[in-house]
Amino acid sequence: xxxxxxxxxxxxxxxxxxxxxxxxxxxxxxxxxxxxxxxxxxxxxxxxxxxxxxxxxxxxxxxxxxxxxxxxxxxxxxxxxxxxxxxxxxxxxxxxxxxxxxxxxxxxxxxxxxxxxxxxxxxxxxxxxxxxxxxxxxxxxxxxxxxxxxxxxxxxxxxxxxxxxxxxxxxxxxxxxxxxxxxxxxxxxxxxxxxxxxxxxxxxxxxxxxxxxxxxxxxxxxxxxxxxxxxxxxxxxxxxxxxxxxxxxxxxxxxxxxxxxxxxxxxxxxxxxxxxxxxxxxxx
Length: 284
What we know:
The protein has helices spanning about 105-110, 115-120, 120-135, 135-150, 160-175, 180-185, 190-200, 205-220, 230-235, 240-255, 270, 275-280, and strands spanning about 5, 15-25, 35, 45-50, 55, 60-65, 65-70, 75-80, 85-90, 110-115. By secondary structure, it is α+β, with helices and mostly antiparallel strands. The chain folds into 2 domains: about 5-150, Jelly Rolls (Sandwich), CATH 2.60.120.10; about 160-280, Homeodomain-like (Arc Repressor Mutant, subunit A, Orthogonal Bundle).
């Protein structure tokens, strides 16, 4: 079984990071079941200290880089751990990556971007060296936090990032049920201006982000027993009807709502835990 832990970021990184996490297994295993990662609007910086994970791309499995940014997802990713597992992750808040790295988020969407291309080869090697030298997982996470704090760019007046972050908050407040035109109006923008800000800061448009938020709002209401009543869930979450809900679950979660988050896999089920998602909507 994979073990998983999370740690909050330092105060300096809290505006940018939701958490730092680690997953490991003291035993090597010949074969592991795949995990299905559900889009949540949060990019991740991943470091594989043991064997690298593979990701299913079309009909083949592609090995992930050692250290990389996984951009905003628009569809579920199917990944599989290697024989030996020890990986760390930095979970960014939606729209926060560009405050720390000079990256084109549209190029990172549904993609893996090697850290060396974002922070430079020297910085990427420094991170990997520090993490390999730290004797415990807690110390590795603390070292990762310190490294990331060092990467903070000089304060910039990024209008797109500021507007996108405010829009993200408004969309989360309505659990993705609000009209995008209303969000733009609240911010004094045209819809096209809002879309450009989202593409720069998140790599996806506001309508798709709202759709992702609405699905995660449903996941946040599902306890370990996975509430039934898909019709009630659909109406509460602002879907037109049950088929609308089921279509979004198939497209974004890769499963029907009744299957339960344990079907996502040993690692991925932690990402769709209701407590974690409720904290996301509270902005914690």
